[in-house]
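ok here's 3D-(3,5/4)-trihydroxycyclohexane-1,2-dione hydrolase:
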Amino acid sequence: MNQRIAPISHAAQESSTSVAQHPPGATVRLTAAQAVVRWLAAQRVACEDGSGRTEPLFGGVFAIFGHGNVAGLGEALYQYRHELPTLRAHNEQAMAHSAIAYAKAHFRRRMMAVTTSIGPGATNLVTAAALAHVNRLPLLLLPGDIFVSREPDPVLQQIEDQQDGGLSANDALKPVSRYFDRIVHPAQLLSALPRALRVLTDAAQCGPVTLALPQDVQATAWDYPASFFTPRLVNFHAPAPIASEIDAALAQLRRARQPLIVAGGGVLYARASEALRAFAAARGIPVAETQAGKGALAWDDPLNAGAIGVTGSPAANALARDADCILAVGTRLQDFTTGSNTLFAHASIVSINANGFDTLKLDAIAVQADAKLAIAALDAQLNAHLDGWRADAAWTAQATRLADAWRASVTALTHAQQEPDTLPYDADVIGAVQRSSPRSDTDDIVVCAAGTLPAELHKLWRAGRPGAYHVEYGYSCMGYEIAGGLGAKLARPEREVIVMVGDGSYLMMNSEIATSVMLGAKLIIVVLDNRGYGCINRLQQACGGAPFNNLFDDCAQGPLGAPQIDFAAHARALGAEAEHVANVAELDAAMQRARAATRTYLVCIDTDPARTTEEGGWWWEVAVPEVSPRAAVREARERYVQQTAERHAHASHASDDDAPTNEA
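and the structure:
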């Protein structure tokens, strides 16, 4: 029997009899699997529209069934399918990516669960769990596990460890989980599920949670307190700032004349965009955005200097180089943001982050707090005690000039005339995609991950509001793009979701095109075909290496040579509409057809694997071999040693002159 699945949206759903109230002391006999599903369905959140209504915290469960979960969890999910929709996918890693993207598109206020069988299905989750861990995004993993009884030992797909009889494939998920539990008795769910939920909804702890479910335990019944399944309104936890840390941050700001705000993903997850905009405007502080934070400030805000770091704009990086204080808000300060810890050499750093671990980087003055609460506290104290302190007027004026000039450059780069007989490059494609809609800066969601495209998008995509830019660059995971686009579309069905992906990532993971067609979750997929791994090919040569094993032309080949891949034909085979275009003018027309389509639509265009946007960028440390028979590598090593010494000496000198203090 076909099951019709309505789009997973913000619409409030009323509780059914399966999550009804029960008298005090009442119990209900359920299998462990039934208890998990029923409890998940009972968790609710306030609707985003401020109506006072509630909706499910969990938008659904992605499932690929096998012998380790089909009998237990599969039956439970069928029983409660109206309260907690089950969505079938085609690849376990991909469906976990979709679940992650769903949570990201909801700014961590709604999420999904994922269930697999015990063997390769479970280990396929490891990459996705690492991605969620790095990006601080909620993901509930419910892999099946081996028999607790060990009667059928070893069971099909079981990994046997000769030193640890209790180990299973799911133990591979421990290093990439923020919380891990193996449920060996149904009663353990009474503590395990609330603990899992706390991690998933706590800004300081947020990340993937794994509850390994042995298949015999899934099927075992127990008398649960009926009250355990009473619908609950979930509260999200984030630390409030403490006075002493705010005082230390204020002392540093008070001395600053040329401050710069670096906005990370924590601004979006704290829903602090408006607070950030007002604070920056009132204080005359320019703002630069990380990959995760892009969209925190509208692209045309006068104080938005654009992308920061290795993939940054010339405006933002020039300001970062000259700033005397960096106010890092909701960023984990990874090396692409900091230029391998060299970009902020002249500045003291104040780091605001809900996660205390992240506040300690770069010897920053730490403010462990929710971004919105911390900004409000700083603003109140500045108004009360520092007479409305502002950045130097000349600094603010310089920042707005640089930002204006960069916006003009973006327009020129994305609207350049394509020369005859030359292939377009990423900026040309980005321009065509954005101008296909008069309000793409606010209405569209662009999804991407890994390679050159995130660098180009970070610089050139015009994000008009939070959530318009959805790029996974914390783990830089090839294959996230299409699956992530599906998750974003399930979360925001009213928005056009445009997946921009290179041919390399497309070939790694594309099966969720079929899932998007099956669910009626239309995507626009733009494939930039540069016939290989163009990004890493350029890095290889920059490090002195010969072009090798990246572009098809430089790979080992059999007698038939490299494949001629028809991505449009492939997408059509998966149920999508698709076409290949020859140039940017044809892409402009194809984007209109894609927007008018009612199902997933793929457009492929050949692009230049060598060309990138020269403007902007910053040094990034990639170690070059110290010894090599190749002269090009030796020359690259000499450059690397010289650049490393210069950068570190510059940073050391700056820290001697501008060492931050914690005096109040």
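+1. Residues 631-657 form the longest helix (27 residues).
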